[in-house]
């Protein structure tokens, strides 16, 4: 009887469904591309979404607007231009473009017909972030805007972070959703074990709940200051002190921690924004809200310790997901053997809601509305 080689099995598996690492992020959602503080009044800043260059422009008056970051004349980035009034002038020949994307002035053209303009992107600003809608602009008003942790709640203090990771965004979703990887963090967290408490799923989301049991090692200082000290049970099984709920509600991900009384003590919101055309580089925008202790100013005292602790955890996750990406690059396709039902369901969700790379997406270079004007 003929046996199927591992390579043949991989090929057969690949024909059954798209390779997850070849599924692009769906552009028909609101994605953060910069912090509000990065775009001061009278300035323009260049950002990217999946290889599309985008110029964020903040006039002295009014809110931010976003243009395709190439002047149609010589393809020079508009983000290098000069903001004047409600327009941005290209740094090369001074062509001026307004909020609508139309070219409204060419200094040396006189009264001739103005050239075509550039594509614009719907923009919203919330939670200290600037969001664009990179997909079909007609959908922007109907697609729900995400809830951004507890940024508007004064009972919480919120930390901002935006690390760049050299991997496909789907590795990030898997990493956070699967809490069984705590062995990786043993140097930072001590020896703890995740206990899976259950899951929920829907057409556009999947949610998993965990608690953690410490089997050895000391509770980290930052964890103790935020959640309170967990008693040393001398080898006995630790009762459920907190419940951690991780949810991917496409395309965003959240992690919420409630204590034994059901009070929310930590709320994390994160979006993974692809930067390059092949979507192998991801910029993560995160908001981490922590409940303020009853003792005044204590949160400010422990904030540096929390920042150090969370950064150490993240660096370990960053290294591991970049290893996963390197393995995919070497083989050329996804060979993961996934056994955890939650992650299997997550992968199906990301494929279902994403865009396989062979699907044509709207070009960013043109804007039909920006026709030649007299």
UniProtKB/TrEMBL annotation:
Its EC number is 1.14.14.-. PROSITE patterns: RIESKE. The keyword Iron applies. Residues 30-132 form the Rieske domain. GO terms for molecular function: 2 iron, 2 sulfur cluster binding; metal ion binding; monooxygenase activity. Pfam families: Rieske, VanA_C. This is Toluene-4-sulfonate monooxygenase system iron-sulfur subunit TsaM1. It comes from Komagataeibacter saccharivorans.
């Amino acid at each position: 009887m003929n046996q199927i080689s591992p390579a043949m099995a991989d090929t057969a598996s690949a024909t059954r469904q798209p390779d997850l690492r070849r599924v692009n992020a769906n552009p028909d959602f609101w994605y953060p591309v910069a912090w509000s503080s990065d775009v001061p009044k009278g300035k323009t800043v260049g950002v990217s979404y999946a290889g599309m260059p985008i110029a964020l422009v903040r006039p002295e008056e009014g809110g931010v607007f976003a243009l395709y970051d190439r002047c149609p004349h010589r393809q020079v980035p508009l983000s290098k231009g000069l903001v004047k009034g409600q327009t941005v002038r290209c740094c090369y020949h001074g062509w001026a473009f307004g909020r609508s994307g139309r070219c409204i002035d060419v200094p040396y053209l006189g009264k001739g017909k103005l050239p075509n303009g550039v594509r614009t992107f719907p923009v919203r600003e919330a939670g200290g972030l600037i969001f664009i809608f990179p997909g079909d602009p007609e959908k922007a008003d109907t697609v729900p805007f995400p809830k951004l942790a507890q940024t508007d709640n004064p009972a919480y203090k919120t930390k901002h972070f935006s690390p760049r990771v050299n991997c496909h965004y789907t590795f990030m979703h898997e990493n956070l959703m699967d809490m069984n990887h705590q062995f990786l963090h043993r140097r930072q967290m001590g020896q703890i074990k995740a206990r899976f408490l259950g899951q929920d799923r829907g057409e556009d989301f999947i949610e998993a709940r965990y608690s953690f049991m410490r089997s050895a090692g000391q509770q980290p200082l930052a964890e103790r200051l935020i959640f309170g000290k967990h008693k040393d049970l001398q080898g006995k099984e630790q009762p459920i002190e907190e419940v951690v709920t991780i949810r991917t509600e496409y395309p965003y991900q959240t992690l919420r921690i409630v204590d034994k009384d059901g009070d929310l003590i930590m709320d994390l919101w994160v979006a993974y924004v692809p930067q390059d055309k092949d979507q192998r580089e991801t910029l993560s925008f995160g908001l981490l809200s922590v409940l303020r202790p009853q003792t005044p100013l204590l949160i400010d005292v422990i904030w540096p310790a929390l920042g150090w602790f969370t950064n150490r955890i993240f660096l370990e996750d960053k290294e591991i997901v970049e290893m996963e990406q390197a393995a995919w690059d070497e083989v050329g396709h996804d060979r993961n053997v996934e056994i955890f039902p939650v992650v299997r369901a997550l992968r199906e969700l990301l494929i279902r809601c994403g865009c396989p790379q062979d699907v044509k997406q709207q070009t960013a270079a043109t804007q039909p509305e920006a026709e030649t004007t007299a």
